[in-house]
Amino acid sequence: MELKFSKVERKGPVTIITLSRPEVYNALHIDAHFELNKVFDDFAADPEQWVAVVTGAGDKAFCAGNDLKWQAAGGKRGWDKGGFAGLTSRFDCDKPIIAAVNGVAMGGGFEIALACDLIIASENATFALPEPRVGLAALAGGLHRLPRQIGLKRAMGMILTARHVSAKEGHEIGFVNEVVPQGEALAGALRWAEMITKNSPMSIRASKQTIRKGLAVSLEQAIEEQREYPAVKAMVASQDYIEGPKAFSEKRPPKWVGK
């Protein structure tokens, strides 16, 4: 598929996905959503790709959210089953996804970042759910993910005021994992990705799936049912499950195969 609104680069087992509409601060419209849905489908299905990093083209914006000028001009709205950017409704991907936020992350852009497992932000990054200022609401997951990630009162404080939050404050209140110097968001995210790839991808997928499924039920039920989760069963049946203890006993680095 020819990519018009995004770029994909693979570095070993890491896929770098760049939102590429810099002329509109990487804001997204229907065609971009459908393209990105296919990009994330391909990443999820590729056994050689273990971690994804999402960033924005240019040095000003990660993603300014929904392309309001497109909408105001009568452009059709909508997205594929994966949600905004092909990501916000993608609940079946057990591979880690990291947001490298290199600037503005507004509305849907912030919702993309919140849908990722980690957020690495440059010091000039800014986050907000400003939809109420234009008569909208953050219905691509922001109204649900933000309270779950930082607590109800902090989330209400951001959502009801539509105020902008710096990367530093985002780190302090808990939705940013690390703040890095301006221009180094992608490098920082790749550093985290490298640390992840030192671990068994089967274990990583089992861990992510167990966390996600477990948070949806009681603690008792989560512990009782976790060994029946598909990714946990796949881990136990994998070559990596044998290789890890073997490498440890032989005092050598493990050779993960991801199956």
TrEMBL record:
<keyword id="KW-0456">Lyase</keyword>
<dbReference type="Pfam" id="PF00378">
    <property type="entry name" value="ECH_1"/>
</dbReference>
<dbReference type="InterPro" id="IPR018376">
    <property type="entry name" value="Enoyl-CoA_hyd/isom_CS"/>
</dbReference>
<dbReference type="InterPro" id="IPR014748">
    <property type="entry name" value="Enoyl-CoA_hydra_C"/>
</dbReference>
<comment type="similarity">
    <text>Belongs to the enoyl-CoA hydratase/isomerase family.</text>
</comment>
<dbReference type="InterPro" id="IPR001753">
    <property type="entry name" value="Enoyl-CoA_hydra/iso"/>
</dbReference>
<dbReference type="InterPro" id="IPR029045">
    <property type="entry name" value="ClpP/crotonase-like_dom_sf"/>
</dbReference>
<protein>
    <submittedName>
        <fullName>Enoyl-CoA hydratase-related protein</fullName>
    </submittedName>
</protein>
